[in-house]
Amino acid sequence: xxxxxxxxxxxxxxxxxxxxxxxxxxxxxxxxxxxxxxxxxxxxxxxxxxxxxxxxxxxxxxxxxxxxxxxxxxxxxxxxxxxxxxxxxxxxxxxxxxxxxxxxxxxxxxxxxxxxxxxxxxxxxxxxxxxxxxxxxxxxxxxxxxxxxxxxxxxxxxxxxxxxxxxxxxxxxxxxxxxxxxxxxxxxxxxxxxxxxxxxxxxxxxxxxxxxxxxxxxxxxxxxxxxxxxxxxxxxxxxxxxxxxxxxxxxxxxxxxxxxxxxxxxxxxxxxxxxxxxxxxxxxxxxxxxxxxxxxxxxxxxxxxxxxxxxxxxxxxxxxxxxxxxxxxxxxxxxxxxxxxxxxxxx
Length: 347
Ligand code: PEP
Ligand code: MN
Prior knowledge:
By secondary structure, the protein is α/β, with parallel strands linked by helices. The chain contains 11 helices and 14 strands. An 8-stranded parallel beta barrel has the order 7-8-9-10-11-12-13-14, surrounded by 7 helices. A 4-stranded antiparallel sheet has the order 2-3-1-4, covered by helices on one side. Strands 5-6 form a two-stranded antiparallel sheet. Helix 3 runs parallel beside helix 4, helix 3 (110-123) runs parallel beside helix 11 (319-337) and helix 6 crosses helix 7 (217-229). The longest helix has 19 residues, at 319-337. The two termini are 21 Å apart. Manganese (II) ion binds at residues 105, 275, 301, 311-312.
């Protein structure tokens, strides 16, 4: 249930509503949007209870309207937050003009991550990505440098000023990864690892949540809901391709997810064409299409020597190809966003 307060309501009126909700055994969630205060009740309610609460609250001063959530996700919905969420990470903003998160699939060595970070920054990337804890299909593949890799990422970040996005695989590792990372990545394979979602939801780090290989849009939003429900409002959604019958690409990029998600949720949406396609020659076209479709950012795998990469070399752009693509991204982004105005508001 969403309670829309009138734009000129007083603080005392909001306090009265909150007390009335608590008095009925619910925990209100409050957000102040640009135009008005919105109060949400996310607990499940049977029909009679909805009617009772609607009658009670609609009679109180300052209430302009009451709606019920249209979908099963609530805090992620646009009913709860009409304005777009913009997430600030150090001096960068996700949710305005598109940002680019670039880096290798895995952190392989100190020298290589420092080199890639410097080149990515010089080409205009805003974030450094790289896995220190790698989920691999085979247990015998390279599974990351763990804490050593996190240290190299931090060093590369300090050197370049790029905030770090890196994956966390288990709830137990969340405190360690959060110590080094600016943004916690939850990968496709873990999208429905609810204990991990909740552990990330208990941190103050933004969470980069990738769509599961076989997950629907609704399931992605319900996974985001687990993080939001723990009090962490900084969730970035990532479309990274889903599994279909087509074997020519690693996955199938679901580009319709971008405008669809933007209609359904206030959270920023980023596209990862590297894992979607699995082939570096397909990445530029998909990256540009994603920006044109309104994505708030791109996650791109980039390597200084893709042929020798310990993981995902086939889909990694060379530093030169990345530099060239960045110029094109800039042009498409300008074409899409130049006519847009609007106030930026942080989560
Ligand atoms: C990654 O970003 O390196 C990764 C493992 O991605 P995904 O979870 O989308 O497969
Ligand atoms: Mn990868």
